[in-house]
């Protein structure tokens, strides 16, 4: 009985972990095996994130923060091919957040930042999806 419960628990836990087979790892564009071309794309996307934050500082100035959408900012570099920007401005324009996701990457690499100007990058912890109770 203990063996059956342990087996069920291990199978359930393994199903929540992201796939780590060699084929999946080979499809990841960023990380330890990143090619020079992919590194260049990633670095350009990071510079674009930094440019958004810099442009927001210039736009806001020393007075009370009032941030703008990227299309209202000047001199932003273009995103590398395959990267997509999602920008969220707070209702009163006193804050913002954005993500720049690599739509070509099987491992879902992304860059994130907000009004605090720190730039983060990485991949999701897992590929498991949550589904509300009562749905299929």
Describe this entry's structure for a reader.
The structure is a single chain. With 136 residues, this protein is α+β, with helices and mostly antiparallel strands. The chain has a domain at 33-122. It has 3 helices and 4 strands. The protein has helices spanning 2-16, 22-27, 36-60; strands at 83-89, 96-102, 110-114, 120-122. It has a 4-stranded antiparallel sheet, covered by helices on one side. A hairpin with a 5-residue loop joins strand 3 (110-114) and strand 4. Residues 1-26 have low confidence and may be disordered.
SSE map:
Elements: H1 2-16, H2 22-27, H3 36-60, E1 83-89, E2 96-102, E3 110-114, E4 120-122
Antiparallel strand pairs: 1-2, 2-3, 3-4
């Amino acid at each position: 009985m203990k063996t059956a419960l342990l087996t069920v628990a291990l199978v359930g836990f393994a199903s929540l972990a992201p796939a780590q087979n060699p084929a999946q790892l080979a499809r990841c564009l960023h990380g330890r095996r990143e090619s020079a071309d992919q590194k260049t794309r990633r670095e350009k996307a990071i510079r674009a994130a930094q440019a958004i934050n810099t442009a927001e500082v210039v736009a806001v100035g020393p007075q009370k923060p009032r941030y703008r959408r990227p299309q209202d900012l000047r001199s932003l570099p273009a995103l590398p091919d395959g990267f997509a920007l999602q920008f969220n401005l707070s209702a009163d324009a006193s804050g913002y957040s954005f993500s720049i996701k690599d739509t070509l990457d099987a491992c879902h690499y992304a860059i994130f930042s907000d009004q605090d100007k720190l730039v983060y990058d990485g991949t999701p912890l897992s590929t498991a999806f949550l589904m509300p109770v009562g749905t299929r």
